[in-house]
Structure formats: C-alpha cells, structure tokens
Design goal:
The protein is an alpha+beta fold and about 600 residues long. Strands 12, 13, 14, 15, 16, 17, 18 and 21 form an eight-stranded mixed β-sheet that branches. Helix 1 runs antiparallel to helix 2, helix 5 crosses helix 6 and helix 11 packs across helix 13. The longest helix is centred in the last third of the chain and has 20 residues. The structure holds adenosine monophosphate. Adenosine monophosphate binds next to strand 2.
C-alpha cells in the first residue's frame, strides 16, 4: 500500500475535529487498505507501532531529526529552525522548507552505497510496509552511543527518500511522536465496524474484543480477515492486559441497597494501585490500571508472588497498598508514588513496603473466568492463590442490610481504607465497562459537598512568587463519553504543596503540546496546553452553571456548561488512571442535580 494514501488521509484528519467526519475519513482509508496492512495502519493512526502495553519507543529527538535533515536532505538547519519557530512543529517545518527547495515535489537523493545500507533505500515505491519496517528497526536499536545515533540518522534518511513533502511531514511526526490527529479508539472502532461489516452497531462486539485484549490492531486485522464471526470468538490472551471493570459511585448505604438488591459482597476499598497480574510459571507481568507495564516499580511482587500461585497460568487483579510493617495498617496512595522512580528502586522497596490484596481472577489454567459469577470467581481465587504475610485476599463480607454495611464500613475506615466496594454476587466481570454490578461507597460521599472528582489536566498557567518556575494553576476537564472529548470544568490553584507542584511540573512537562489537542474543548486561554493524559483528584464546594466552561454543555441549561466552585486539589495525582476513567459529564450532572435536591429538601424543612 502506498504511503501517500495514508499521508493524504492524515492530512484530511488533521483538518477536522468532528467525530463524524473523522469516522468518514477512516472508513475511506480502511476501504483502500489491504487486509495484511490494516493492523499497521491502525497503530500508525494512533502514532504508535504496537499496542501501548508493549511499551515500544522510537527514542528519536528533534535534534537527531535536524541532524538527519542537514545530512540527507541538504537543507540548512537555520532555515528549518526559522520555520519551526513560526509553526511550532518540526514535521511541518521540514516539509515546508523542502517544498520550497524541490521543484519536482519529490525528494530523491542519490544513494551513496558506501554510506548507507542499500537495502533500506531499495524502494520501488514508498509503501506503508516499508515505512513501518524502518520505524520498527529504529525502535529495536538499543543504547545511545554515536554508532546508534548514526544508524538512526541513516534510517531516518531512508524514510524520507522518494517522499513528497506531505509524506516527509507525517513520517517526521511519526518519528517524533507528534502525530496528534485526535482520533480516539472509539472512533477507530466505529469506522472498523462500518468499513468491514457495514453496520455501526457491530461496534459493541469490537469493543468487547478490544476490552479483553487491549490490542486495536489485532481487533482490526480480525474483523478484516475473519469478519464479525472472528470478532465474536475473540478470547483473552495471556500477557495481553484486560481493560479493567469499573464501579459506579453511590452516596449512601440506602442507595446501594436500592441499586444492588438484598444480598451482596462488600469488600474494603483500599487506597492503593490497581495491579493486573499475569503469571505463567516464573514469568510475571504487571499492568497498571491504564495498562502500562509496571514490573520495574514492584520487584517484590515479581519475586514473591509465583510461590503463592497454584495454577499453570492465571490472570489476577489486586490492589497494591503501602503498609506500616509494624502495625500492618494501610497507608494512603501517595506513599506509593515514592516507588515511581527509575533509579534506586531497591531502596524504595525497603522504605515503602506493600501488601498485595487480591480481589479478582479473570483467567485460570487456560480458561476465561470473566463470564463466571462473582461468587465463582472468588472461590477460584481462594483455591489457586495462597495467602501469606505479603499476599492477601481483600477483606470481604457478604452483607444483607444497612446495618451490616455500616458495620463493615467502620472496620474498613479504621483499617485505613477509603470505603467499600459493593459487588453483585451473581454477575460476571465486565471488562472495560462501568456499571452498577460494582458500586463504590466512599466515606466522603456521605458529606454532599465533600465529593471528590477525578479530572483531566488540560492546561497550565505559570506561577508567580513562590511558584515561579512551576505551574501555579491548572485547567481541568471532565471526560465526555458521548463525544470522546475533554471539556473544561474549572481552574484549580489551591491545595498544592511545594512538593506536589514540583511533582506535577515534572510529570506535566513531558505532556506539553504546541497545539491544543482537538479532543480538548475549551475557549479559555492557557499559558501551555497539555496532551490530555493526566488525572488528578479535586474537591469543590459546589457545582454551578457556567457561561465559560464546557463540561455538560446544554445539559442543564442551553448555552451553559457546569463549573466547580472553589475547587481544591486533594494531593492525589492519579497516575494510575487513564483519562477515559476520569469523572464523566454524566457524573457531574448527577452531582449537580443531587445538590439541587438537597437545597430544595433543606428549604422544605
Ligand atoms: P475509583 O478510583 O474511586 O474509581 O475506584 C476504583 C479503584 O478502586 C480501582 O481501580 C481499584 O484501584 C481500587 N480498589 C480498591 N479496592 C478495591 C476492590 N475491593 N475492588 C475493586 N477495586 C478496588
């Protein structure tokens, strides 16, 4: 498949942020895509080479691209930099400079076979397959020595060879990880369903396949080659993460009983990090809630856990919680942040010990367990995982009424946890979805105005005074599930300590984007825009109608969104959360209505 087809398509997608238009462009692209390239196309659209959980990195910097441009395109670095300063994107800057330089519109350098490995230049046409293969080769280079840098430059040159300026632009964006089309996974699935089954409704089946394997390329290839029947047979794959099941929140024991019935399981809701553990023999792989590989933070889990397992292979879910080793008490989530470091992890492991608290089993001895009921899964869990001082089952009680829930809630809070998770006994594990089969009852939800929200950081404002050099205020957004966007809801400037500001600065600096991501919906100005990738927790005194903010726009009143009044950062940087797990517009609307109702009830009293 010619790369120019993909580049054309990227160009169109860059020009819009409307979901329907994006879907249409994707359908047109998929219709032109041979089946054996579809998975590559799907990864490339998302600016990746493989699914995120494989952690493939290209490790190409702007500096290296500039060196390659100088060497192989023969264009003056200063010319590119002048354009770059105006445009802010290196891919576009190089292609614009090239366009001026080449009359033919096609760049073709004479190949010097002494300098370059001929094979990578041996192109009849510039195909997606070849571009992908070269990008893959770059990702496989290890180390940072001169030799490796030179090899990378050769590869980059070969990517640009025989390319039109538009192709150069997008290849460069792929190299630098700056291709940001704003195409969400949901939009890709809509388009796949339309292109390969003619029916958008089939998207639900694709969603299921995606939920159990987290690999959109694999899903795409399956529907292209085996149709919907292939998708229906999609199975869990050991060492491919399963997208986690989520819980709805309830405010009181009474509300929980109304939603969940008369007998259910209550588990402690521990305040730690959710870990999905895949094990076969001595091989242990750990995924975070946002499905990143996290073995490096938990060498103690890797070392200790295989001996607790009595199964050939298994996929488990557990909450890793920092503990006080002397008292056995659970410590807050922030303690775990000390483990998120590259160096001296052994020291952090001793200073911040954890316990691992199992609450689910999704696969065991080659069999899918997600379709079994909660009760059956808990039995399998207790049969195949042995407890010791490090590995525990999460404390659980079967409860029948309000008093029993209250009792267990008190125990849970006293042990240092956040509240309870309430789970229906006869329901399966619903990968990747939030629903009322699991409910969360946090202590603070009983206090109406103390509700916390998990919001996405979309913009920043530089601080003054003591905060100079940091972002003093952040612009936050909810997640709009229908549109797959991040509409702004408030600015937050309180609740930060010097330490948390430093931590946030470190994390956010790698997320700065030159252009506002098309999924961000906001008319506010910001000093910097961030890629929507980080979730933080805030509390607020009230939710009000807002002419400025875009969350839940038009839901309560025409032309008004919702905003948080007096928002305050709680100190929790939720690095383990995916932005699609942030508080949704629906949740904010429910809170807004709940607050109105309380005010109304108070007035009647
Ligand atoms: P929240 O982050 O408030 O949406 O709550 C969901 C998170 O609670 C999960 O992602 C887990 O990390 C955590 N959690 C703690 N205890 C449990 C439990 N017993 N069952 C499921 N999740 C739990």
């Amino acid at each position: 498949m010619e790369f120019s087809i993909l580049a054309e398509s990227f160009n169109k997608m860059e020009s819009t942020r409307k979901r329907l238009e994006l879907t249409q462009f994707l359908v047109e692209l998929f219709e032109k895509t041979p089946h054996d390239v579809i998975s590559k196309i799907v990864y490339l659209i998302q600016g990746k080479l493989r699914p995120d959980f494989e952690g493939i990195e290209l490790g190409v910097s702007e500096k290296l691209v500039l060196r390659a441009a100088k060497k192989s395109l023969g264009i003056n670095e200063n010319d590119i930099i002048t354009t770059l300063n105006k445009i802010g994107d290196l891919g576009t800057a190089i292609s614009n400079t090239l366009e001026k330089k080449t009359q033919t519109g096609l760049f073709d350098f004479g190949i010097d076979s002494d300098t370059y490995d001929e094979a990578i230049f041996d192109t009849k046409a510039n195909t997606v397959e070849r571009i992908y293969e070269v990008l893959w080769s770059i990702s496989q280079l290890e180390g940072a020595g001169k030799n490796i840098q030179d090899k990378k430059i050769n590869f980059i040159s070969s990517l640009w060879n025989k390319s039109k300026p538009t192709e150069v632009k997008f290849v460069t964006k792929l190299l630098l990880g700056t291709l940001r089309l704003g195409v969400a996974e949901n939009t890709v699935m809509d388009a796949l369903a339309i292109a390969y089954s003619g029916n958008k409704e089939n998207r639900k089946k694709l969603q299921h396949a995606y939920n159990v394997t987290s690999d959109l390329g694999n899903v795409a290839e399956t529907i292209a080659t085996k149709g919907i029947e292939g998708i229906e047979k999609f199975e869990i794959i050991l060492f491919n993460p399963i997208r986690p099941m989520l819980a709805d929140r309830v405010k009181s024991e009474t509300e929980a009983i109304e939603k969940i019935g008369s007998e259910f399981a209550a588990e402690y809701k521990l305040d730690g990090e959710r870990v999905q553990i895949h094990i076969e023999g001595e091989k242990v792989v750990l995924f975070s809630r946002s499905l990143e590989r996290i073995e490096s933070y938990y060498p103690d889990i890797i070392e200790k856990i295989p001996k607790n397992i009595q199964a050939d292979n298994i996929i488990l879910e557990a909450e890793a919680v920092a503990i006080n080793e002397n008292t056995g008490e659970f410590l807050p989530f922030q303690e775990l942040m000390h483990r998120r470091r590259k160096y001296k992890i052994e020291k952090a492991v001793t200073e911040y010990p954890i316990s691992l608290n199992f609450f689910d089993v999704l696969y065991c001895n080659g069999k899918n367990c997600t379709e079994l009921s909660y009760k059956e899964r808990r039995e399998i869990l207790e049969k195949h995982v042995k407890e010791d001082g490090f590995a525990k089952y999460i404390p659980m009680n079967i409860v029948k009424n309000k008093n029993e829930i209250e009792d267990f809630m008190e125990n849970s809070i006293n042990a240092g946890s956040e509240g309870l998770m309430l789970k229906m006994l006869d329901k399966p594990y619903q990968a990747g979805s939030r629903g009322s089969h699991w409910l969360k009852l946090k202590r603070e939800y009983r206090n109406e105005l103390g509700d916390s929200l998990d919001l996405v950081v979309i913009g920043g404002y530089f601080g003054k005074g003591r905060r100079t050099g940091n972002y003093g205020t952040l612009l936050l957004a909810t997640y709009d599930e229908d549109e797959d966007t991040f509409p702004s809801i408030c600015k937050v400037g309180t609740g930060f300590t010097d330490e948390s500001l430093d931590q946030l600065y470190q994390i956010l600096n790698s997320k700065v984007s030159i252009k506002k991501n098309p999924r961000i919906i906001s008319e506010m100005e910001a000093d910097v825009w961030f890629e929507p990738e980080l979730v933080i927790e805030v509390v607020a005194s009230e939710i009000t109608l807002s002419p400025i903010h875009k969350a839940a726009m038009n839901a309560i009143r025409k032309d008004a969104g919702l905003a948080l009044r007096f928002p305050k950062f709680t100190g929790k940087i939720r690095v383990e959360k995916a932005v699609e797990d942030a508080s949704t517009n629906e949740e904010v609307i429910t809170l807004y209505k709940g607050q109105k109702k309380i005010a109304h009830d108070k007035n009647l009293m």
